[in-house]
Amino acid sequence: MAAHKEMPDFDVIIVGAGISGINFAYRIQESNPDLSYCILEARHEIGGTWSLFQYPGVRSDSDLYTFGFAWRPWTGKHSIADGSSIRQYLEDSAAQEGIDRRIRFSHKVNRLNWSSSSNMWTFDISTQDAKMISLRSRFVFLGTGYYDYQEPLRASIPGIHNFEGKVVHPQFWPVDLDYTNKRIVIIGSGATAITLLPSLTTRAAHVTMLQRSPTYIASLPSQGAFETIVSKVLPCFAANRVIRLKWMLFSFFMVSICRLFPRAAKSFLLRETAKLLPPDFNLEPDFVPSYNPWEQRLCFCPDGDFYACIRSGKGSVNTGMIETITASSVKLTSGKELHPDIIVTATGLKLCTAGGITITVDGEPYEISNHFAWRAAMVEGLPNLVLSWGYVDASWTLGADSTAQLASRLLTRMRKESVSAIVPRMMAEERQALEERPFLALKATYVKNGGNAFPKTASTGPWQPRSYFWRDVTIARWGDVKAGLEWLK
């Protein structure tokens, strides 16, 4: 990057020591080893999501072969892994590459300001001991995820304040909660609820998943025969590559088939569901979704554990609308009543971009949601700042890595051409002609309600939303990085 009389503390500052931040740190070291960088992490440890979430049975909802890093393959036996194993994997990966030595824990970024006079970002940071410090960098990478770490989604549940038992949100699960022999109602039907049901039934008296509408839930072998055979036949390095490629292809073709042939995909998924439920079990109304596969995220349960606890009688699913919640019951509009000791509100996440950091440009407030995303990585009018987003129909890490490779390429080119700042700009004629598209192509309620947390995307040009990994990574490595991007020397 171009020299300047005002020197930054770092060339690059990464915010977040989760999947995205650690992967970006690796890509910097790989492509720009001379650049100085640090990682600012608000929490006390590595992990991000996998440090925050501590509810029973917390696990990935993507296979670990693609959720893991391309540069450090997942070698565990299980394709779907629990949260503690994932966090340990992240710690080991960061230690292997010396990334852990660059992390400053308990450093929460409150405010970011870009100065056009110095071509630098200034960070206002609060630390664990309540000190306020300031750092400056030329480039920023935000690996802050897509939801609010501080506040859960407050779903509108009539009468929830009346309940005299325990009400728990999975995002902040109490470590001392004893649910032994308790009756539990989980409100929600997403990946979290589907994880909680079999986990809670190991100790609870009975667990009911109460949903407004059903979700597609597919069983996935925790240990596949393909992976076992390949690992025995091929050398470790080759086996890891083949297994990762298999899962990438599996995800791509599964999503493509569901979208191209929705009726056939729906029929297949429902047939597989019927095989896992008790004999003569009626799929209606609890297991037949009203939408097509992948209009909302498809949920997986390893070795059919979700269905196993239903067959055992310890778990059940109930579809209906809540009329109200009393001191001791959940009343449905159908007239049915549930009598839980504990209610778990697994109703989604509160969406949030940039970790809730206040952003200003030359002192003027900047709102990301009012602007268009360039290559699903930068936002118009924001210089030298990249945000990391993953995929909704594949693993998060694949999307984060394509963004990290694009950012690394931009950094390399900036140095070679002595460029001080790059900033996305949309021409007036472009703006008039474009059609807006949703940033996340999902119909989940929490996504629809919180979609204005994200930048805008369009139907054409570099303003399009993400598509699929191979296209995105091809653009990241060799695609046009001039269109829509202003390079300032």
From TrEMBL:
Pfam assignment, any one: Pyr_redox_3
Record's keyword annotation contains Oxidoreductase: yes
Keywords assigned by UniProt, alphabetized: FAD, Flavoprotein, Monooxygenase, NADP, Oxidoreductase
Cofactor(s) essential for the protein: FAD
Gene3D superfamilies for the chain: FAD/NAD(P)-binding domain
Any one Gene Ontology molecular-function term assigned to this protein's record: monooxygenase activity
Protein name: Monooxygenase
Species of origin: Penicillium egyptiacum
